[in-house]
Amino acid sequence: FSPRFSPARVPEGGPRRVLDAPARQRRLHRQLEALENDNFGDDPQAGLPRPGKRLPNFSDTAETGKKKKKTRGDHFKLRFRKNFQALLEEQNLSAAEGPNYVSAGAAPSRLPQRHFCAVCGFPSGYTCVTCGARYCCTRCLGTHQDTRYWGA
Amino acid sequence: PYLIGNFPIFSSVIPNCQFRSKTARLKTFTANQLDEIKDPSGLFYILPFQKGYLVNWDVQRQVWDYLFGKEMYQVDFVDTNIIITEPYFNFTSIQESMNEILFEEYQFQAVLRVNAGALSAHRYFRDNPSELCCIIVDSGYSFTHIVPYCRSKKKKEAIIRINVGGKLLTNHLKEIISYRQLHVMDETHVINQVKEDVCYVSQDFYKDMDIAKLKGEENTVMVDYVLPDFSTIKKGFCKPREEMVLSGKYKTGEQILRLTNERFAVPEILFHPSDIGIQEMGIPEAIVYSIQNLPEEMQPHFFKNIVLTGGNTLFPGFRDRVYSEVRCLTPTDYDVSVVLPENPITYSWEGGKLISENDDFEDMIVTREDYEEHGHNICEEKFDI
What we know:
A: mainly alpha, 29% helix, extended, B: Nucleotidyltransferase, domain 5, 3 domains, cytoskeleton (chain B)
C-alpha cells in the first residue's frame, strides 16, 4: 500500500458508507441554507433576563410636545412578527399567474456547472466515492478524509 | 453643496440594523452606533430584513426611532415628506404595514414608496435624456435584480432575481477561510471588510487560477491580510508586497490570512452561482435572457444602456467583466454599453433627490389626508411596486 493511505482511516470492520443521492441533496440544501444566515452563533443576550419595564425617562415625555399614537398592543406585535416564509406563503403565488416574486426567480444556467476542490478551491477533476465531494489531488483527498463530516 | 433652508443636501450611508457585541453585554447598538463599539469581534447582527423583505418591524421601528429622533436627524414629521424604497414584488401585507407605520405611527406629511431601480433609472435618464430604455442591475446584500425600464416604467415580465448577494458572498468566504485557515465563522464584520479590501473580479478565470497555484514571487494573486486585534491594529489591511514572507512563517505576532484563489473565486459566484450549487443564471446571462424576452425592436436600446448599481458592483473589474460577457452573448449588430456610476451605492438616492425636486413630485406622493380618506387603496393605485 502507498504509505499515505493508512487503513485506519476507513472505519474498522464495517462496509464503506456511501451517501446516496437524496442524502447528498439534503447536505447541499443545508449548506445553501447556512449561507443565508445573518449570524453563525447565538444572540449574546439570549440567555440574559430581560431588563424589567423601565419607567419612562422624565426628559422624554417633557421633550416631545405631541403624543405618539398608541400602538394597539398584542395584535400589532403578532402581525408584525411573521417570518419571511410565512409571508411568502400568505401571498399564495404561483409562477403561472403573471409576473410575481415566484416567476422572477432566475432560471438555471445554460452553461455547464464547474467543479472545485472542496479542500483548496482550485478546479477539481475527481469525486470522492463516499460523499460526492470534489478534490483535485491525492493530498486534498487525504485532508478531505481526515476532516470528513459524517452528518447526513 | 446644494442648500435648502439651513441644511446642505448630502447622503450618508447608515447600516439599517442593530448590533450586539460579546464584549459590551446588555447594550444593543442601533445603526451607526456601530462606530462606538470598541471591539467589534464576534459582532451579532440583527436585521429587520429577511431575504430582502422587511419582516421584523420591531427592529425597523427601533432603527427609525433612533434616526428620526433627537440624537440624529430630529425629524419634524408634520412638515416632512419621505421617499422610501422597497424590494420588487413586495408582499401586500408588508406594503400595508408600511403605510400604517409611516402614516399612523410616525405621521409623515406625505410618502412616496418606490423601487430603488425606479430612482436609478430616473437618475440615468437625467444624464442621458435622449435614451428611452435602460436596464438596471441592482446587486445588493440579499439578492440581485435585473430590471428593464422603458420610459420610467419597469417591464414586470422581464424582471429577474438572482438569489446571490453580499451576505452570501461574505458567508461563503467565512466558510472557506474557516475550513482552510482559521475559524472566523463568528466574525462577519471583519470578514466583510476582508472581502471588500481584497476580492476582485477576474477577467480570465482559468488564467488567474493558474497564476494562483504558482509558488513564491510569481504568484501575483496571493495576498497576506493582517487581521485586526482591536487593541494595536484597529483595522485590517493587506501586507505590502515588500514585507511579505513568501516561504516560511511570519515572526511577528499578528494573525495573518493568506488568500489566493478566494480573492476572485468569491465574486465569481455572482457570475456563476452554479459554482457553489445554486442552480441559477449569473448576472451577464440573466441580463441577456431578460432583454431577449422583450419585444425585438426594443432590444438594441436596452443593450446600449446597462447600468450597474448596488454594493457588489464595487469589486474591481466588475464592470469590465460584465461588459465582456454580455458582449460575447449578444449579436454583433447590437451595441453594448455597460455603465458603472461613480457611486453605485448612492446612485438611487441621487435619483430620489432629483425626483423630489421635480414639478410633478406633488402628483406622485400620497399625503396623510389622502391616506386617511382612502386608506390602502390609494397607495396601491399610485405606487408601482
